[in-house]
Specification:
By secondary structure, the protein is an alpha+beta fold. It has 2 domains: 162 residues, Elongation Factor Tu (Ef-tu), domain 3; 74 residues, YaeB-like fold. It is built from 5 helices and 14 strands. The strands form 4 sheets. A 6-stranded antiparallel barrel has the order 3-4-9-8-5-10. Strands 11-14-13-12 form a 4-stranded mixed sheet. Strands 1-2 form a two-stranded antiparallel sheet. It is globular.
Length: 261
């Protein structure tokens, strides 16, 4: 069922400005839990998903001309943060614990919980009168409500001399990633269903998805996360290297504990 978001704060100042927003669709993503999701879109280019649109927004005429676009802006709802208490300061991963103003970050815990991501459009597909968009490079969890989509227009959306403050450069690749013989064979098998699975796992891990406080726990030698319908187990080899030890089918696909298995 679509989620209705009412901008009630506007009514405090002008009741006539109250506005209701209804999602037009939902994201189906390779990411089934928050842990492991890239902290920005485009960092993990092998991350794939698709957008299911609700009627009448799934009709083909709504997408006429979109096939010529390579990238899209996805405006969405941080639905996992709807019940969190909003704070004017947050701790972005880049600052490793230092608080920054919420408006200087892209943190999900923010006023109205609205987010935007730029993704690559792989293809537009219409079947039985319903149109679906297949996308990649996403940083969105399964079930993310989509508020709107807009084409990425290079001549206005790309600003080469822009400054990004403390997040001006892409994050460093912290970890070297390897696969055990067992995990390598498992990935080869699952790649028939999930193309570029090895690349997807490697790209996620090289940026070290663990929260800062978990990285500092020396006794934690293993962790895991879910991708698609798979449970991925990882062993910490040393400070700068991890090894994927096991990749198995899992129907669970819920939040993964940080503790050792």
């Amino acid at each position: 069922m679509p989620i209705t978001l009412t901008q009630s704060l506007l009514s405090i100042y002008n009741p006539a400005m109250t506005h209701t927003i209804e999602p037009i669709g939902t994201v189906h993503s390779c990411f089934k839990e928050l842990f492991g999701i890239p902290r920005q879109p485009g960092l993990v280019k092998a991350a794939r998903g698709w957008i299911e649109f609700y009627p009448p927004y799934n009709r083909a005429e709504a997408f006429n001309g979109l096939e010529g676009m390579s990238h899209l802006w996805i405006i969405f709802l941080f639905h996992k943060s709807l019940h969190n208490e909003m704070s004017l300061t947050v701790r972005p991963p880049r600052k490793e614990g230092k608080r920054m103003g919420v408006f200087a970050t892209r943190a999900p815990n923010r006023p109205n919980q609205l987010g935007q991501s730029v993704v690559e459009l792989e293809r537009v597909e219409t079947r039985h009168g319903k149109t679906t968009l297949y996308i990649k490079g996403l940083d969105l969890i399964e079930g993310t409500p989509v508020i709107d989509i807009k084409p990425y227009i290079p001549y206005v959306d790309s600003i080469p001399d822009a400054h990004g403050g403390f997040a001006h450069l892409a994050p460093e690749q912290r970890l070297q990633v390897s696969f055990s013989d067992k995990a390598s064979q498992q990935v080869d098998l699952f790649e028939k269903q999930h193309p570029q699975l090895r690349q997807l796992i490697s790209d996620i891990l090289q940026y070290d998805p663990r929260p800062v406080y978990v990285r500092k726990l020396a006794h934690k030698k293993q962790f895991g996360f879910f991708l698609y319908d798979l449970d991925v187990k990882v062993e910490i080899m040393d400070k700068g290297a991890v090894q994927v030890s096991n990749v198995v089918f899992s129907a669970q696909g819920t939040e993964h504990p940080y503790s050792d298995p």
